[in-house]
Amino acid sequence: MEISLPYGKSHINAVLPDEFTVEYIAPRSQAAAQDPAATVMQAVYNPLGDVSPPRAGMRVAIAINDKTRPVPHESLLPPVLAGLRRAGIRDLDVHVIIATGTHPVITPDEYGTILPRPILDTYRVSCHDAYNEHNLTALGETSRGTPIAINSDYMKADYRIVIGNIEPHQFQGFSGGVKSAAIGLAGVETINRNHAMMRQPQAIWGSYADNPARQDVEEIGARIGIDFCVNAILNAEKGLARALAGEPVAVMRAGIPSVRELYAVPVSAPVALMIASPGGHPKDINLYQAQKGMAHASVATRSGGRMILCAACPEGAGNADYERWMRQPQIDSHAAVLAEFAREGFRVGRHKAFQVSRDASRVQTALVTDMADELARALLLAKAASLQAAVDEALATLALGARIGVMPAANATMPVVL
Q1: How far is CA 20 from CA 120, 269, 371, 405, in A?
Q2: CA 176 to CA 29: how far, in whole Å?
Q3: Which sign, positive or negative, has the C-alpha torsion 260, 263, 269, 270?
């Protein structure tokens, strides 16, 4: 049989012999909204929870996701901006801030990859820099000891809005809600302390109320004071399936059951070979993002098994500190990564090395990618000549009848092993 997986902005194919049992592990089918703008408008004007509307004279800041998230800003933003105008907010008092977290800061000439030109021509747009201490406002600490420092432009606003997606997240449980501001507009130390909680047992995808990392995010969001949230739930083809708006926690509570229904997929048993794609662009824009698909796919892959990760990674590793750290002479194996990371202590950026090696030390992983051979070697991943070559090599090690898993949207899929 022939399989096809998203790869960058296209697809990549391979043929599997009929002697093997193939199980597709993919989100359930969900039709996209026929009129996305009307769907979002309906959500915005019928908000969930207790929210107060903006008033004329207010300065408004809107946190949006960066280019590594497939957020349909062209559908989510216009109804919000129209509502602000209707409330008497002047266009010049609206500031759209691209929430990058510790991702690379993008330049103004890249803003068009995220926002429609009419919005760029009308509103002030800037990009957050987690490392710029001069544009961070301290807000104390959370109950878990996380120091809170948030983008000062966002904090100066009288009314704060956050826009994003709700989808599975490998250690926050779910993205969405306040996270785009609480992490996306935070300083590096805030992000570092929060992300260090990924090592706690309940910090896993699908966990929300008892997830320490996610509840730390909720506490940061409460301290910020976010007035309104607009979130999309996308189907497997990245089409807008549902929109929710209102008080951020109410949006999360209403959206999570829909995300579970769409993306939690039962798997009868771990497979011997997993062939996975993070979901194509922008989920595989770099390894920093593609690793999330690797983590989800490894859950459904048996220890000692094999994985083929198909991720174009046109932007390479995706984090300069991660790449520098991996190029140290003592980092020559996955075991060395885990040992050095434990010795040094948690640091965001190089935590991606820990996550990759955690799974690659348990499951033999080949990478089908456009990144340079030398970079793949530095990141301790075996680059395959092609998907078919990687498949043929892996099949040669399997017994006939072995189970093979195929995950075309691994970043968003939550495999539930029965």
Answers
A1: 51, 15, 30, 10
A2: 21
A3: negative
SS3 of residue 279 by DSSP: coil
- In this structure, the dihedral spanned by the alpha carbons of residues 261, 237, 301 and 418, taken in order and rounded to 10 degrees, is 20
Which tens digit of pLDDT belongs to each residue from 219-228?
999 999 999 9
Look at residue 69 in the predicted model and tell me its pLDDT. 87
Contact at 8 Å (CB) between 184 and 128? yes
C-beta separation of 210 from 202 below 8 A: yes
The closest of 98, 292, 235, 278 to 180, measured between CA atoms, is 98
3-state secondary structure of 188: helix
- Cα distance between residue 163 and residue 198, in whole Å: 24
Indicate the residue type of 64. I
CA distance 117 to 112: 6
Which residues of 332-395 form beta strands (DSSP E)? Answer: 364-368, 382-383
pTM, to two decimals: 0.90
Q: Per residue in 256-281, pLDDT tens? A: 999 999 999 999 999 999 999 999 99
Long-range residue pairs from 395-402, CB within 8 A, at least 24 positions apart, any chain: 395/16, 395/17, 395/20, 395/273, 397/306, 398/20, 398/272, 398/273, 400/19, 400/20, 401/19, 401/20, 401/21, 402/20, 402/21, 402/272, 402/273
Q: Which residues pair with 315 in a beta bridge?
A: none
Q: What is the residue whose two structure tokens read 């340079």? A: 372
C-alpha 369, offset from chain centre: 19
